Amino acid sequence: MKIHSKSQNGVRPGAATNRRTFGLSAACLVMLLITAGCSPGGNSGAGGGPVDIHFSTGGALPPNEQEAAIFNGELEDKGVVKGNGEDYRLEMTFAKGTPEAQSLLVAGEVEFATLAFSTIASAQQQNAVPDGFSIVAGHFIDGYPGKFSNTYLVKEDSGIDSVKDLKGKNIGVNSVGTAVDVIFRNALIKAGLDPESDVRFVEIGFGAMGQALRDGRIDVGSMVQPFSEQEMQEGGVKVLTTAKESVGENSAIAVVARNDFLKENPEAAKSFLADWVSGIKWLDDPANRDEAMKIISDVSKTPVDVLDLFYGTEKDYYRNPDACPSATALQAGVDAMVKVGYLENTVDMKSLVDTSYLPDPDACT
């Protein structure tokens, strides 16, 4: 498998062995939004060998996006991932975020991509992908019963006890327009505050969010795992609210695929997603937890002791073992976008879901 790497807030994905190669030509990146040229490779199939599958991540690393851990080669060596090289040949690009992944999908540079509910909605409203696209698999769910929900932290001595106390305060988000931004704006509206005039949003990477909060540069820090648990372990902070309290059970991201590719290469798509599901089940199996954390650590460069704070526990996100996407959880984010003014009209996420390429579609009903 080839892996194309692009900067992720200064973090370069690791490689477990030297079989993995990196690099996407600068010329291809420059031309990306102009033409669908510079294709990483043509498709085979139809008796001509494995089908090329080009996949873009959404900008995050394992365990929040597990694809890099599933397909880095370790699970192939264990016989968990079986179709890569036989039914399909995978090339993975690490995008900076879901907007870049969306651009790759639209330009035809990739056939599969991890997109956020926001980029899914915008692509659908703009009819950006010829012949359309489908949501074919899920990643994780925020706020699933008994599991973690993204937190919005304040300092314990801040005097901030509710969202209503935030008028005039600085809110840290990783980027305006992202899931954590949309969801917190919805929380502000529910509390009777105007996100445009009553607070100020400050863009800060998740890795620097905790220190910015402790230094007083922001009054609220938006936290995903593992950063939320690290800050809670250090102490001096408290949870002001959660994503679940704002919009309910929600799903920030999902796996989408171009419909033209699915129609032309259904068996390759099914083999790829079968390996995805096998990988998820292996990585989330409690019997494999220690080894899984080692694989995830090698790929993400997150220390094992940090992963051990939450991975596979009630402090982790919920991942459906059959990779079933939740249209309801995705819809929560889209509806919040409409409420905060990021979308004029809603998009019916259920109409985009197609689980027929998963190994057990009946598990998703």
Structure, explained:
- The chain has helices at 26-31, 67-70, 74-77, 98-106, 117-125, 179-190, 206-215, 227-234, 243-247, 259-264, 266-284, 289-300, 304-307, 327-340; strands at 2-5, 51-56, 88-94, 112-116, 133-138, 151-155, 170-173, 200-203, 220-223, 237-242, 253-258.
- With 365 residues, it is α/β, with parallel strands linked by helices.
- It has two domains: 2-141 and 251-364, D-Maltodextrin-Binding Protein, domain 2 (3-Layer(aba) Sandwich), CATH 3.40.190.10; 151-247, D-Maltodextrin-Binding Protein, domain 2 (3-Layer(aba) Sandwich).
- It has a six-stranded mixed beta sheet with strand order 1-3-2-4-11-5. Strands 8-7-9-6-10 form a five-stranded mixed beta sheet, with helices on both faces.
- Strand 7, helix 6 (179-190) and strand 8 (200-203) form a beta-alpha-beta unit.
The beta-strand count equals 11
Overall mean confidence score, pLDDT: 89
Secondary-structure-based class equals alpha/beta
> What's the architecture of the largest domain, going by CATH?
3-Layer(aba) Sandwich
Pfam families: NMT1_2 (PF13379)
Protein name: ABC transporter substrate-binding protein
Organism: Saxibacter everestensis
Summarize the structure.
By secondary structure, the chain is an alpha/beta fold. It is 33% helix and 16% strand.
Keywords summarizing the entry:
11 strands; 6-stranded mixed β-sheet; 5-stranded mixed β-sheet; 14 helices; D-Maltodextrin-Binding Protein, domain 2; 16% strand; 365 residues; alpha/beta
